[in-house]
Specification:
148 residues; 3 helices; 22% helix; Rossmann fold; alpha/beta; globular; 7-stranded mixed sheet
Length: 148
Amino acid sequence: MKYVTHAESETIALGKRLAQHAHPGMTFLLHGDLACGKTTFTKGIAQGLEIKDIVNSPTFTILKIYDRGRFPLYHIDAYRLENNDYDLGLDENSEEVLTVIEWPQYYPELPSEHLDIDFRYIDDDSREITFQPQGKIYEDLLKELNLC
């Protein structure tokens, strides 16, 4: 399903709406070029989880953990993992958190079931966001939100 947002606030609202219906153990993979809305969308996810912390890109830290919400959010920027074999130890807590991975093509081991979210820059304000569920729980999530 393709969805077009026409302002940063709409991208945030879409992420918030998705997170309000998400469950611990889910993984969202965010694909797209630089400055196409991935971190903006993640800000909305944090809002949907009732996280009050400021969310920004974990580019230099690779992983940011936001644990003061309905349940924790792991925000990963895997760009710096290219050609590296880091073990972030995420599999230990994956059932208890919502994991968001930017640049998932560089992440060493992705779960087989996840939600692919593709971002395409249209213009300074607009983004095309496409959802591709990989597994029944993600299909059900998108049906619940009328995003499929």
